[in-house]
Amino acid sequence: MLSNLIDKEKSIEDLEGDRWPEPPADSTNLVRSVYELRRRPIKNLSVEDMRRLIGQDVGLKWLLPVALDFLRDTAPDEAVTGWYDDDLLSAVLTRKDSLWRSVPDLARHLNETVDMLTGVSDYIQRHVDNFRASLSDLL
Q1: Alpha carbon distance 94, 57 (integer Å)
Q2: Which of 49, 51, 67, 80 sees the fewest Cβ atoms within 10 Å?
Q3: Are 84 and 37 in contact (CB under 8 A)?
Q4: Alpha helix stretches (DSSP H) within the chain
Q5: What is the mean pLDDT of residues 84-104?
Q6: pLDDT-based confidence at 136, cuts 50/70/90?
Q7: Are 41 and 11 in contact (CB under 8 A)?
């Protein structure tokens, strides 16, 4: 498992050693939720929480391995149930190329996980195609 070395008892804030102040009073719901989610232990984050944080490029060093483990673990069920967490997969696939180039093993792991899926939506397939095209030299 990619995330075995991550202390999921700790929050992103704990792992980063960076305490954010309270969000500004006029913050959006998204901003307030990101601030709050950074303070939760990683083990208490839902798939939706991870998607939200990853989509905002928060805590990627710790969340990507956890998310990739989840996606890999649930990929075989997709063929049976016809359901897959497209929102988390989309958030992961659409991170910047520079991020994936800095962690090529994770990029290859994601590519292998995507190969396990059947019948992905056109929406997700576009993300897969873009991910693979931009990183073809690495995969």
Answers
A1: 10
A2: 80
A3: no
A4: 12-16, 29-38, 47-55, 60-81, 86-93, 97-102, 104-116, 122-134
A5: 93
A6: very high
A7: yes
Whether residue 20 has pLDDT greater than 90: yes
d(CA 32, CA 44): 17
Q: Crossing angle, helix 122-134 and helix 104-116, to 10 degrees?
A: 150
- Between CA 130 and CA 126 the distance in angstroms is 6
pLDDT digits 0-9 by tens, 30-82? 999 999 999 999 999 999 999 999 999 999 999 999 999 999 998 887 766 66
Average pLDDT of the residues of the chain: 94
What type of residue is 117? L
